[in-house]
Amino acid sequence: MAPDAELKVVAAGGKLTSVVIKAKDGTQISGALSPAADVWTSSPQTLPFGQTFTAQAFAVDREGVSTSASTTFKVRNADLVSANISPGENAVVGVGMPIVVRFSRAPSDQAAVQSALSVSSTPAVEGAWGWVSDSEVHWRPKNYWPAGTDVTVRASLGDLSIGNDQTGSTSVSRSFRIGKATVLKVGIDTHQMTVTSGGSVVRTIPITTGKERFTTRSGIKVIMSKERSRIMDSVTVDIPSGSSEAYRLKVEYAMRLTNSGEFIHAAPWSVGAQGRRNVSHGCTGMSMSNASWIYDFAKVGDPVEYTGSLKPMTLTNGYGDWNLSWKSWGKRSAAV
């Protein structure tokens, strides 16, 4: 039974004298008799999810003979909404890392859920929540995090009434730290990557990016994950098997930047083009030695700023939060 269902008890051919509906914990459902005392109707109220009630009705028939009846019923269980938070506990991430909260199902009331989320940091950092889908919300600082910031995020969902038969599952929290301020700057048109730490250039790396028809996106990307090696198959990026552009190969030192398949990785087969022209299918390739170095130096959450192409990075193709102005980001809050 739904928690907001209206209950009726009817005395066929007689009159009700009393109706009592309550749960084991004493929760009682109120209601009123009709003028003819032949129908009892519950008052508007919301019953607890998952609760079992016992209903007892007492009545007299036309001859004045008393009778009674009882039954039990259960209010259906709520649709639970749980939260998964990243970065993980005690992680050390880069200055571009957004806080990502993914929900087990789309909350029916985003504002109610957002009000149960909080971020605290030392030092204090200005930031805001922004919804990137019906079931995912990010918290992004106004500017890149200061290096060394300690952050705690809490999702206080335990027993939270969300609406539309949803309730929060359990409360969760995560604490993490912002590491050194590493920023990678990639010139798609200059074929160079400049690596900075704390604002100082530490290395310039010749690279190659996407060739014609496979243009690498301009904009701010964030390192999403790191894999020492991975198999890359062109069918996963909509290049059909058997095409002249098809490939399947093992790459080393892979760092994901987009959901659509842009990575930074070693590309020893294109060393001759690196620093000179773009020959890849959209990834950023470099020599094995440079790829090994940047893999060890960079971390998840480091921003990678691309310039030099007309193809833009988008909000949901990875952690695209930084491609929105602060004003535009604020409009994605459910509290607006």
Can you put this structure into words, describing what you see?
The chain is mainly beta and 336 residues long. The protein folds into 3 domains: 8-74, Immunoglobulin-like; 79-179, Sandwich (Immunoglobulin-like); 182-322, L,D-transpeptidase catalytic domain-like (Beta Barrel). The protein is 6% helix and 43% strand. It is built from 3 helices and 26 strands. It has helices at residues 110-114, 288-297, 326-330; strands at 8-10, 14-23, 31-33, 39-42, 52-61, 66-74, 79-81, 83-86, 92-93, 99-103, 117-122, 127-133, 136-141, 150-155, 161-163, 166-168, 172-178, 182-187, 192-197, 200-206, 219-222, 225-233, 248-256, 263-266, 284-286, 303-307. It has a 5-stranded mixed beta sheet with strand order 20-19-18-26-21, with no helix packed on it. It has a 4-stranded antiparallel beta sheet with strand order 8-10-13-12, with no helix packed on it. Strands 9-17-14-11 form a 4-stranded mixed beta sheet, with no helix packed on it. The two termini are 35 Å apart. 29% of the residues are buried. The mean pLDDT is 96.
Question: Largest beta sheet: what is the strand line-up?
Answer: 20-19-18-26-21
What summary fits the major beta sheet?
Answer: 5 strands, mixed
Order of helices and strands: EEEEEEEEEEHEEEEEEEEEEEEEEEHEH
Number of strands: 26
Q: Examine the coordinates and then state which fold CATH places here, giving the name of the CATH topology of the largest domain.
A: L,D-transpeptidase catalytic domain-like
Mean pLDDT metric: 96
Overall geometry comes to elongated
CATH superfamily of the largest domain: L,D-transpeptidase catalytic domain-like
Secondary structure tally, helices: 3
The radius of gyration computed from the alpha-carbon positions, rounded to a whole number of angstroms, is 30 Å
Determine the N-to-C terminus distance. Answer: 35 Å
Structural class: mainly beta
